[in-house]
């Protein structure tokens, strides 16, 4: 069914606000509004909440986390990109290749303090793939990370009619 991306982002931000406030991390949005895709609202919220929780957890307090939404035109069907950027600790090139694996956590001793299982990103990856999309990661140690989910846009039915 049709999923309203604005509603997904608003709900994911609501579910992350408490954690963000605890860590004095600012949460903001930027980019296009009124986008929609076909798929599961609940799964997309789960994916976005996982990315937001990581962005908040693996940043210093007072960090800034931004959710960006945009339409990416493409000859083989437009895509919708939902990005989560932080200015946190970053991920080394070596670890970037592995973070989507189940149970993989960078620096076990440090990660243990945050009490996760290392499953979050593998779940995000599964959800994105189930929607026919892909996820990309840009990161630099000490600068921050951006995880971008690219999902096929729902065709504009009004234009077809
Ligand atoms: P879980 O999500 O299951 O609670 P987790 O956060 O450790 O546990 P993932 O979400 O899969 O598991 O992330 C894997 C690892 O990737 C994390 O342990 C962390 O080391 C690293 N990581 C993920 N997101 C970021 C980020 N935004 N900045 C820096 N490191 C990150
Ligand atoms: Mg996680």
Automatic annotation (TrEMBL):
Coiled coil: none annotated. Residues 1-155 form the Histidine kinase domain. It is found in: Cell membrane. Its main location: membrane. Keywords: Kinase, Membrane, Phosphoprotein, Transferase, Transmembrane, Transmembrane helix, Two-component regulatory system. It comes from the Bacteria. The keyword Phosphoprotein applies. This is Sensor-like histidine kinase SenX3. The chain holds residues 240 to 400 of 400 of the full protein.
